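Obj.: predict assembly geometry.
Materials: sequence records (below).
Method: joint structure prediction, all chains together.
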Amino acid sequence: MNEGSKKTIRTLCFAVLGMFTFSFALVPLYNVFCEVTGLNGKIELRATNVKNIEIDNGRDVSVQFVSHNNEEMPWTFKPSEDNIQIKTGKYHTATFYVKNTTNKKMVAQAIPSVAPSNAAAHLKKLECFCFEQQELAPGEEALLPVRLIFDDELPSSINSVVLSYTIFDVTDYNDVEFTQHHNDDHHAGHEMEPSI
Amino acid sequence: MSAVIESHNHDDHHHGPTKGLTRWLYTTNHKDIGSLYLWFSFAMFLIGGAMALVIRAELFQPGMQIVEPEFYNQMLTLHGLIMVFGAVMPAFVGLANWLVPMMVGAPDMALPRMNNLSFWILPFAFLVLLSSLFMEGGAPNFGWTFYAPLSTTYAPPSVTFFIFSVHIMGASSIMGSINVIVTIMNMRAPGMTLMKMPLFVWSWLITAYLLIAVMPVLAGAVTMMLMDIHFGTSFFNAAGGGDPVLFQHIFWFFGHPEVYIMILPAFGIASHIIETFSRKQLFGYASMVWAMASIAILSFVVWAHHMFTVGLPLAAELFFMWATMLIAVPTGVKVFNWVTTMFKGSITYETPMLFAIAFVVLFTIGGFSGLMLAITPADFQYHDTYFVVAHFHYVLVPGSIFSIMAAVYYWIPKWTGNMYDERLGKLHFWLSFIGVNVTFFPQHWIGLAGMPRRIPDYALQFADWNMISSVGAFLFGASQILFLFIVLKTVMGGKKATPEVWEGSRGLEWTVESPAPYHTFTTPPKVN
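Observations (raw structure tokens):
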């Protein structure tokens, strides 16, 4: 086989490996792309750096809260208020009521989504129950808080925003990891309010 | 590699194939491997076709009569996977094996032993896939697009075997494409510059590059599925921070170039056949090459037109709509060139030409329904209806598959040394032509009227056209048995073919005798 063929083969093998790597690189690229552009209604699952984005002359925005149970997740999960009026640049705390209706200990994870999607980049959360998993004993209930603010750059065409949470049953999903995490910092930084 | 070449020098120049079954098992001859690929793909075509007939039999009347819905879903999934990865792609690789070395004046493919490997792993891939039918929980049932979480959280246990078989198919395709590219780039006869290459060679060079680019992405997608299912990762699981929509992006980043992988070699075949039977030089050779290259490049930036309804932002919907419509320009150039080649030609209508003309006409119909689907707001209605089914079957059946049949009729005298039975060939064409249109044209209408795809039952108002469609499907299916008969008859005997076979045939493969000797161009020909 001549040198030219060997060179072509080498190049092609690298291309194959490169494209295989690229397919995995698509995962972080996709998330970064969604976060930067706020497309897909994705919001970060961690608190925004605390900096002063509060202002006084904000405009009115209507926020609707929606809750979903994924698949056969048996918990009761609903917003305390369906609809609130808030001003941009002002913090507001909303709560979701949650109850473990089963007779076994369960762990849940809530995943947020924002519509319209271009509002996502302007919705900042200081704290949210979606930042961590929730563990409830049988029959236990709780009020889960989310502390949010819209920055002043929210496009003027947006007067109404839907903040939706889907709650997933993750009890069996990563049991070991959770138990470990749970024992490490029990109650430390636990944002869940005491049972009502 | 050098050992192979040395042994050729020692042997008698005219030595033929070894005898017996091991000939096929151990062969490194591009013609043998080409035949293996073609027979394998025909077997898969019949199996996938039988599954299509199960689907059409169930849809003959509304209500559930023949199969359970779960089994219907398995048939639907396997039909798609087998036709795409088992029938169309291996058939084109088989044609490439037979023709590319002869067309560029090379003695064989560049990597003959890898060529043997890339074929012989394929039967195992499909054995694994088909064996899942007999496993607990049944075969994959999530559609050939295997969207997560259908193919992860809700998949039957056999999904792991499906993933394994896709890995093998991918490895086979990647090895095949490396072989084709190395052969074309390094083993052309002296004087054959890139822009003198036959268009089938050009079409396969571009196809092979597409395969190199996207088959690893498919391998990545199924690997992520495997990790989600067995290793607790959350690539596509929202509960763990993943995103099911990400699966669709990765899948279609592979999937859209994949559909051009299944049509570009057809463009090459149609160009050769139309040129020969019009007895004119092909109109616009250079523009044909550039059109194929532009289609290939554009195929990487249109994937999200399969996903208009997932909730893309307006800017993305517009971008993917316009990028998709842009593909109509190079495709239109090709159709224009084919028609212009025929214009004022001395056309005769032998079977390959009939298939090639039907290809141009019916592929164009499929292209037009593709343009309709590209219109984002309209797609919200068409999405996941039978209109989509009609569209992609028009580009794949009378597109890719007609081109493969045209190629078989066109080159089989070169392969076997015998002419096929022209009368039976024409009969096969007309039965297939009528069958394909009766099957798929009514699906446009029931799709526009709102019949969803992938559902085993339907509302009463769709009953008439579904019945007609099923009748067409059985006609088309039965006519392929005739095709098998014609091919076998030609292999057994028939009128002897001359080296040039067709009046006015052009290209190096027609300069060797018919049937083509076991070894051709051991000394490279001179190309002016």
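Conclusions so far: Residues 3-37 of chain A form the longest helix (35 residues).
To do: check interface contacts against the pulldown list.
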